[in-house]
Write a structure and sequence with these properties.
By secondary structure, this protein is mainly beta. It has three domains: 1-87, no CATH class; 125-279, no CATH class; 318-505, no CATH class. 7% of the residues lie in helices and 35% in strands. The protein is built from five helices and 33 strands. The chain is elongated and about 90 Å long. Mean pLDDT is 76; it is low at 1-96 and 508-523.
Length: 523
């Protein structure tokens, strides 16, 4: 590599099955690198790379936020001395992440079983939450017509022992059976988190509908320092609901949010405005859960005519301890290890717990009662991103990546409802999701403050290689996995942590995490 540059371009080819994300390091303007210096240039569908004699691997492949899509691209390279060019090999970003470790899955399932969420509920700090079956607890009291049919249900059941009660009554739109389960709440660390309403205020009825049965809307009257977050229903204006059957919540655990239409009474011929609203998060400026906290939308209804205030409940983020599983150490085997290889997954010691309303994308039959809560796990693993000869050591500029590709993030959201971004890590939230919570710290995900609504952010970083015949570089990633209450896992996705340190093999240097999306190696 010390002989003079021969000035010729040599074509080496490689198939890039994944997105090749590139950025120009020194664009010469003509579309190909100049004879001096080191550069990478993009020209569809050809990639040109140039190498220098003293550091033959400083030709840089790094990531561009424009996310250029390359398919079966030809890679042209230029080298000093050998006249044969060099093939560039890229780690396939879309290569399947490792399957979750069987031991990790078993550990999660064991922890969930021990927690017994279908009976004991989940601890959200000041209050606890439990999903209670609607069958046998909520009674059909009125079926309404109109352009959209509706069935009203009143709580007339026996509350589970432990102080579990609803925050209001429910409906089914269109008319029929309600959700198989509904969130009930009980005091947690604050024994005074809830209080019964002191009475009820008549709001309206279905006068004018001509229906055989009647329905009346009632607003709970909250004690001082508390708020009512949902309305109740009866069949008669002479019979108010029973206060002991419902909770109002302490004001400090309620945050005003937005409202969305739950039912429009058009065509029902009511004299009053029977429209029903429900709490929702604001799409333009979503409400943010406090650090270490969670916002939960209660499954309640509000009267549009009365202008009831919509609230979310403010709790402490729920977690569940799980027996950790160690991450296997990466090992380089000459002639066998390739860029893209991964170790098995480990398991971190904390699961984040969210109610089923956080995962509406999971079309699980009887979701509310069979999977009332979901458990989010972080399963770390090592991925080989680069293999290079380094007999004299040297420095190489590579790409630091944080987050998850837009394609993978979108696919993950479709199955788990979870939003992933380089700026905030992993979170639940949005107008279609029933909770807002950040899980970034608990899952030990790195973020990039330079991101703006990006699922992935990339910068360039220089690495100092040890002097050894060959070096493989391993990136620490986290497989984010969501489990149902029965321990069934949903499809996972890999999240790339940014630079902490670098893991070099086979030199056995201190373990580290490295985020590289495009790996450069001698072919």
């Amino acid at each position: 590599m010390s002989t003079p540059f021969d000035g010729s371009w040599n074509g080496g080819t490689a198939t890039i099955s994944s997105r090749a994300e590139l950025v120009n390091i020194a664009m010469p303007g003509s579309g190909r690198p100049s004879a001096s210096g080191s550069a990478v240039t993009v020209g569809a569908p050809v990639i040109y790379a140039d190498f220098t004699d003293d550091a033959p691997y400083t030709g840089v492949l790094s990531v561009d936020n424009s996310k250029i899509l390359w398919s079966n691209a030809t890679i042209w390279t230029r080298d000093y001395g050998n006249g044969n060019g060099s093939a560039l090999k890229m780690a396939d970003e879309t290569a399947a992440a490792p399957a979750p470790n069987a031991a990790a899955i078993q550990a999660v399932q064991t922890a969930i079983t021990a927690a017994n969420p279908t009976v004991d509920g989940v601890d959200f700090g000041a209050f606890h939450a439990l999903v209670v079956p609607t069958a046998g607890n909520f009674v059909d009291i009125y079926d309404g017509g109109g352009d959209t049919t509706i069935t009203f249900y009143q709580f007339q059941g026996t509350a589970p022992s432990g102080g579990w009660l609803p925050l209001g009554d429910i409906v089914a739109v269109p008319a029929g059976s309600p959700s198989p389960g509904v969130l009930f709440f009980a005091p947690g660390t604050d024994p005074d988190a809830f209080a019964h309403p002191t009475g009820f205020t008549w709001l309206l009825d279905d006068k004018g509908s001509g229906d055989d049965r009647d329905v009346v809307y009632w607003e709970p009257v909250a004690p001082d320092g508390y708020v009512a977050v949902g309305i109740c229903f009866t069949n008669s204006g002479d019979i108010a609901p029973t206060g002991a059957n419902y909770w109002c919540i302490k004001q400090e655990y309620a945050l005003q949010v937005s409202a969305a239409t739950a039912w429009d009474d058009s065509g029902a011929n009511w004299d009053h405005d029977g429209n029903l609203n429900q709490p929702c998060f604001t799409s333009a400026s979503p409400e943010i859960a406090p650090l270490g906290g969670i916002l939960i939308l209660p499954p309640t209804l509000l009267s549009a005519q009365a202008g009831n205030t919509p609230y979310a409940l403010v709790g402490t983020q729920a977690t569940l301890s799980v027996t950790p599983v160690a991450v296997p150490e990466p090992t380089y085997v000459d002639g066998i290890t390739e860029a893209g290889d991964t170790t098995d997954c480990g398991l971190r010691d904390t699961l984040v717990v969210v109610p089923y309303t956080a995962v509406p994308a999971d079309s699980f039959t009887q979701q509310a009662v069979l999977s009332p809560f979901y458990y989010v796990a972080s399963e770390p693993f090592w991925k080989c991103t680069m293999i290079v000869p380094t007999p004299a050591g040297g420095t190489l500029t590579v790409a630091e990546s944080v987050g998850m590709s837009q394609t993978n993030a979108s696919s993950f959201a479709q199955t788990t409802s979870m939003t992933v971004g380089a700026e905030f890590g992993a979170a639940y939230g949005g107008v279609s999701v029933g909770v807002t919570v950040s899980m970034t710290e608990e899952l030990r995900l790195e973020t990039s403050t330079s991101a703006t609504n990006s699922t992935e952010v990339v910068t360039s970083v220089s690495l100092n290689f040890p002097s050894q015949e060959i070096t493989s570089v391993w990136q620490g990633q986290s497989l984010i996995q969501v489990f149902r209450s029965d321990g069934t896992p949903l499809p996972p996705a890999a999240y790339e942590n940014g630079f902490s340190n670098v893991r070099f093999e086979p030199s056995g240097m201190t373990p580290a995490r490295l985020a590289l999306k495009a790996a450069l190696a001698r072919g």
